[in-house]
Structures are given as C-alpha cells and as structure tokens.
Amino acid sequence: MSHCTLFLSNTQLIAFQVEKGQLLEHARFALDDEGAAAFAVFLDVWKEVVFSLLVDVVEEDFQLESIPHLGRSDRNALLSRRLDQNYRTTPYRRAFVQTFAKSGGQDKVLMSALTLVAPIDAIVNVLLAKKIVLQGIYSAALLAGEMLHRSGLGLTHYLLVSFTPGGGMRQSYLAADGLKFSRVSSLPEGTNLQDAERLADVIVVEALRARQYLSTLRLLGREDKLQLAVLAPSASQPAISQRLASRGEAAQFVLSDVPLDLLARKLHLPQADSLLHILCSWIELHPPANHYGQGRHLIHATWRKRGMLLRWGSLACLLFAFIWSGLAVMEAGEIQTSISQSLKKTGQIDERLRRFSLLLKQSQASDPAAMKGAVELYTKEFLTWPDMESHAQQVSHVLLGFPELVLDELRWQSGRAPIDPSTQAEAVDASAPAALPVVLELKGRVEPFDLQYRQALASVERLNKRLAGLPGVTVQPMTLPLNTSSKSGVEAKPLQQDRNRVDFVLRLSWEQKTP
Strand runs (DSSP E) across 392-467, as ranges? Predict the structure, then answer.
C-alpha cells in the first residue's frame, strides 16, 4: 500500500510522495473553500493510499513543566488534567515525560499542542468521512529533533534554525533529553534565501533573541556558549560568523554546519534541498510514532493494523497447520510401519503355533506315559540346559586385558558322572531337576614369545588369577608355558621341542544352580 504525506503550513496544503527513490510534489491546495473542494476530489483518486499529516504552523505551543514522580496510572491521570487545563480548546495535544526522577523527585515533562484547530479539523474530517487511513499527525518541530538525534551528527544543546515554506524561519532549542523550545518568526518581506548577507543578518538577530529568552528560562547559563546549527545554503556560514564578530557576540555561539545532503545520507533518505523534503521522506520511509493524532482520528489506521495482524495470524495458523499435517503424516507412516511389523511378527507366531499344533496332533499326547516322559525330558534336559553365551562373554571380557595371549581353541561341555546307586537314596529330592555343570577348556599360546619363558608364565598366571575371580568359577591349569615340575632341569627348560611356540591349557568349570 503506497503512502502520501500532507504538509500543512499557515498558507497552504501540499501533498508529497516518494516514488522511485525521489520525493515528488503531487498537488497544492489553498486553505479556502475552493482548495477544500479540490482536496476532496484529490482524495477520491487517492483513497487507497495511507496518509500522514505533517504540521508546521505558528500556532504550536510548547510548555516545560515539572510533576511529582508517580506510578504510571497516576502519572497519566495527572498529565491528562494538566493538558485539559493548558489546552482545553484543542484535541491535538500531547504530554511527553523527558526525564524520569527517582522516587520523591520531580519528572520533567514537555507539553505541546496545535492550537490552530480549524484547518486541521477540515483535513482530518474529510479523511474520516471518506474512510481513508490516517497514520498519524506530526509536528515539524518535534520530528526535526527526533530525526537529528537519530542522524548521529553529534549535536547536543543546540539551536536549530530552519526555513519553512511561506517565508517563515523556525528556531528550535534541543537538549540531550529532547525539545525545550521552538517558535516560528516571519522573515522580512523580500528576503531571499540565496542572499547570504541579508540572510545572515536575520539569523544573527533572531539567534540573539532566542539566546536571551533561553537564559530567562534558565535553560542556558549567561556564560554558556550556544551551539548554532543552521540548515541553510553553506555560503551563509561565513557571513553569519562575520556578523557575530562585528556585534561582539562571537564568543557566545559555536557555529555548526549541517549540510542537507549530509543529513540525508546519514538517514538513508533521498537527496533534498530543504528540511521539509527530508521530513516528508522520513515519514514515508521510516514512519515515526504519532504525535498529535487521537484514537478517533486514527481509527481506520487501527483497523488496518488489526486486519494486517489478522492476516499474518491466519498465515501463521495455516503454516502451523501444514507443519502439523506433515508431522501427522510422518507419524502415521511410522505407526503404519509399526503395525506392519507387528502383523508380520503375529503371522510368524501363528505359523509356529500351527506347526506346534500339527506336531501335537501327530504325537501321542493322549498317552499319559508319553506325556510324563515329555515333562521329564523338559525338566531334566531343556530346563537345566546351561547358558553358554554368558560364560563365554565373561571369559572374553577378561581376555581383552591380555593382548599377548592368543586363544587357538575353546571347548565346552556339560554334564556330570552317573550317580552311584548306593548314594542315590541320600539325595534330597531325586525327582527335582539337577542343573548340569559347565566346563570350558581354553587352549592357546603366547605371542610374541622370544624365548621369555618366565614372562610367558607370568602372563598365564595372571590370566589364571583373573579368571578365578569370576563368580562361581573354578580354574584348573592343565598345561603351562614353563614346566616347573621336578622332572625339568635347573635352567627350567621346557619339555616342548618347538622353542618358538608356548602352549597353555586352562580348564574352567561352573557349577550351575538348580532352577
């Protein structure tokens, strides 16, 4: 949606719009009945455009006041009463707290209002009647201070001098916390802004009056220097310095050159030849906070913002719905895969049950003797069948700490010798299933060997000790790398003929617990 800025002065109304990086003037309207009719026709063509109203008139009042530091609700109520007292006849008013004091102190407040109501009402009412969006009502003095503060030119406690259409000169005193004073004076008849000498005389005279007024208000000490920032052709700067020197007032001022092209570059705005053009570009490209527009003036802008929020909210909800739908589809796919796997496992179980039922029908399940034999086979053989995997894992974890030992062969067996009939009666419960012991036999060698018999023997003995520490295991060395029996010689030479291979055999046995 495009944007248009309406500039209202004491003499005319001008419509500006930024197009292709340039600020263009579209129309001018006189402040009379004929101009009002032309403005209404103009709005019929531009009714889809967002408007802003920039006001630069003589009838703008500024007052600095101090109020007690209060809570937010109490402060707003007090400011509302003060505004009613000071500016009862105009709705275009505002109160802005420039400095917040600590508890028990005094807050510094700037109260301002546009006291020229009729021309502003005429513009606002026709915009409301045509249901055209009015974004805000702005003060040229307030907006210039905000804009220069944002520009980063380093101006502090300065008197800004600018020129308005219709032959006016505005002086605004701005401190670090905001605007303190602003007024418009008329230029002498016939003054040409290109006449540097004549313009310098006018600026110096008005600057001296402003400095005296600021000293009276105690906003500036009598010995303090006033920074003078003039938005005028650069050729006027030397002339202003000469006039101040000739009047003996040069020590009271510090001149600051503020070229308009530099200000535009600092604010990333199109090039302009006046402060008015810079302000209009700033409003369109970087919309500031509203100054004087009340709720009923900005009702269509409020509904437009709510509509935009609703549209963005709808888009966000739609995006969320798409994301949620995608996640739901992914989750549904995972659930379907899980169901397929479950059905596959169920089919496998059903197949096993079918085969088991077939075997059960083929067996002599109806014969009690056959059933008893099957139960005894299960309890004595299958139920007591040892778990070889857990024992092998225990041994494997121990062997990880012996990289020098190579395991060539692992044998295992389970069972015990037949029970002696003479002692069978002493068994506690001959019918209970007897768990079978597990026996592991490890056969390996030490590599590299390098004829280090004692070192090889130490490694095997450490392995024997580690294995013996396993729960429920008994280790019996069957063959060692070094034969230390009485049959070996003094040098403890091995019995093996192959000096490059050292064999060891360890037998591990676990006594299983009865289930």
Answer: 405-414, 438-446
Sheet holding 50-55, edge to edge: 22-30, 12-19, 3-8, 50-55, 134-139
Judge contact between 304 and 133, C-beta under 8 A.
Answer: yes
CA–CA–CA angle 223, 226, 231 (5° rounding): 165
Indicate whether this model's pTM tops 0.85. Answer: no
Residue 498: pLDDT band (50, 70, 90) is: low
Q: Give how far Cα 384 sits from Cα of 242, 353, 380, 478, 499, Å.
A: 118, 24, 6, 28, 44
- The pLDDT confidence band at residue 234, using thresholds 50, 70 and 90, is low
pLDDT of 378 higher than 90: no
CA atoms of 59 and 53, how far apart (whole Å): 16
Tokens of 312: 């963005």
Nearest Cα neighbor of 480 from 491, 467, 495, 490 is 495
Predicted confidence (pLDDT) at residue 178 exceeds the cutoff of 60: yes
Pairing of β 50-55 and β 134-139: parallel
21 pairs with which residues across the strands?
none
Please give the Cα distance from 89 to 57 (Å, whole number).
17
Looking at residue 275, its amino acid is L
Strand ranges (E), 157-288? 158-164, 168-175, 178-186, 226-230, 253-257
What is the rounded CA–CA span in Å between residue 314 and residue 258? 47
Residue 44 in tokens: 């019929």
Per-residue DSSP letters for 72-114?
A: HHHHHHHHHHHHHHH-TT-S-EEEEEEEPPPTTSEEEEEEEEE
Q: How many CB atoms within 10 Å of residue 235?
A: 13
Residues 6+ positions from 445 with CB-CB distance below 8 Å: 405, 406, 408, 501, 502, 503, 504
Please state, in angstroms and rounded to a whole number, the distance separating the CA atoms of residues 258 and 441. Answer: 99
* Amino acid in position 241: S
83-126 pLDDT, tens digit each: 999 999 999 999 999 888 888 789 999 999 999 899 999 999 99
Specify which residues 50 forms β-bridges with. Answer: 3
Q: Which residues of 499-508 are buried (b: 16+ CB within 10 A; e: fewer)?
A: eeebbbbbbb
Residues 425-448 have pLDDT tens digits of: 554 454 555 556 788 888 888 887
- The tokens for 33 are 């009945």
- Give the pLDDT score at 34: 93
Task: Give the amino acid at 325.
Answer: S
Distance, C-alpha 382 to centroid of its chain: 64
Strands (E), 117-234: 134-139, 158-164, 168-175, 178-186, 226-230
